[in-house]
Amino acid sequence: MSETIVAASTPLGVGAIGIIKLSGKGSIEVVSKVCRLRSGKEIKKLPNFKLALCDIIDNNGKALDEGLVVLMREPFSYTREDVVEIQVHSSPLIIQKIIQLCINNGARLAEPGEFTKRAFLNGRLSLNQAESIAEIVKTQSEKALYSIYQNLRGIFGEKISEWQKSLVFIQASIQVECDFSDRMGASNIQNTIINEINDVWQNIKQQYDRSKKFQNLKDGLLVVICGKPNVGKSSVLNSIIGKDRAIVTPIPGTTRDAIEELFLIEGFPFRFVDTAGIHESKNFIEKIGIEKTKKYLEEAHLVIVIFDRSQNLQNEDYKIVDLVRKKPHILVLNKSDLTSKIEKKEINQLYPGEQVIEISALSGEGIDRLMDTIIEKVKIIKENYDEDYVAINLRQQNELLKASTFLEQAKKSLEEGVPVDLISIDIDEALRCLKRINGEDIDEKIIESIFNKFCIGK
After folding, report:
1. Residues 6+ apart with CB under 8 A from 123
2. Considering the domain 220-385, what is its CATH architecture?
3. How far apart are CA 340 and CA 334, in angstroms?
4. What is the pTM of this model?
5. Could you tell me the residue ranges of all domains in the chain?
6. Of these four, 202, 265, 373, 441, which has the most CB atoms within 10 Å of its CB?
């Protein structure tokens, strides 16, 4: 890690400011050859964290741009190495030119995620915290952002450490039980061990369940718009998101595949999906679309059920009723601008006591009321997603699941009379799982694969 690395920390493109970052022992020396302070002072004499005006100079001493430079000496930097940032006008040409000048003067181009990887290897961040940085960059949910930030602060890592300490204490208790198994009170020790394992197991299992919910929060909760063909599903989607996302025609079966659109409501990402109309069809492509609709309905967090009030209820309507009855749903009578052939009371017979919203997706009548109802449902869903710390990705969740499984196995073995010394193996495996979440006892290849998913410059 003695090499000096350089990369752009802001996206390449025309803009107000572009930032080039260097890290490594030679960072200050490299920048001294690329930047010239307007004050005439030497860059290496700059104090930490103080911006200084400079000119960017090429190999011939010719100024290319003006900018600001700031030094962050080890260990008080992101990577715990000497770090230098150069802020200039954001022109792809200028940014690329400065990076090339740095390379010409002894730096090399950073690999994806290498700055954060160095922060991890130098002990500034745990692996869990490093992964939180990658998730913060990608997240589209305000709620998820809060949870991920708690991880970045190390709150989840602290919880992992607590569980590790508990398991180490359990291992010590097992050793005591083995050493004094022939004395009075051994059975009491064994019962204590079972209770202690159960406490940690329950905590980890609960955390795993919370983390699976977080995955929905991060990816977007699924809202499925369903109904038979030509009831106006695509028009409703377009009205909700405020743009023509789905093709609308009077021809039944226009939507043969699911159309998905991400939309934020109250800081929550929702994946609104316009699905193929459910009906009996011999068309191979339509049948695939209908099967996909049914799959979406199984996974949906909320279903908007559309009925066409200008047509009598048909067999397809009744089938849809059965498919979504047990799901959180909103009932909508569309085409309120046309003569009605369905009364609300007919829908209420299918869904006793439930609210039915009348709209016209064509004119926009009733769409505001539909949106208010969606927001009401969202508020109810949001109450289940107030998490302070979670395992934020599948790698961490899988380690939690494995740790939980090992502890459950250890607990059951003790209860079934298996000698206490034999369950140490399961406790050890659970400990390894927890260590891997924070980046201890982890294979180098896994570390490489994690940081390779980062962008260059992060």
Report:
1. 80
2. 3-Layer(aba) Sandwich (3.40)
3. 10
4. 0.69
5. 5-110, 130-216+393-451, 220-385
6. 265
